[in-house]
Amino acid sequence: MSRLGARMTASPRPEFQARLREQLGRPLPEQERPEPRPAGPRHSRRRPRRTLFPQVLSALLVASMVVSGVWTYRSMPGDTFYPLKRAAESTLFHLSTDEAERAGRSFGYAETRAHEVEELLGSGERDMIGETLQAMEDTTRSAVTSLRQVRRRENAGAGELMEVKELRRFVQKQRTQIRGMIPKMDAEDQRKAHGYLDYIDGLAPPD
Question: What pLDDT score was predicted for residue 199?
């Protein structure tokens, strides 16, 4: 090592330095050049996901609301969504602006109860029939009370004419529907149905 060190110089030889400068200054071949990476590829791929997720979430929420609304509207006494259906009816009733609108809603709800009784009889689930008949009668009484308040507030002729028209239409439809269901009911439910028919017959006697 001592003999070798004496022969070596402290710096590279001039011809080596010249060859190195020439190679460093020469441009690289095309195949050796690194391909430029596109700027921000991750951001370009993630941006559609960020905009798509709220839309998908909103669509799912709307779909769930629509399905829940349909289930609520079609629910029957004893179903999970039935209390929500009755609560919605009560809310719409109390949001009505006048007694005439309340009367119209109450007549509609009473007709809905009659359809529910018919569905319960057809399905064989009879446990809720008596309760539904009672709810139908209570709703009908509420409608009649609202109509009578309208007649007292307005002039007697117009109020009485509206009351007679509404009652006769409603009573005729209810009478036909309830009488057709009575043979399918048990003794207790038949008693309630006959009592309801007696009540509505007294409101608007047949022509």
Answer: 93
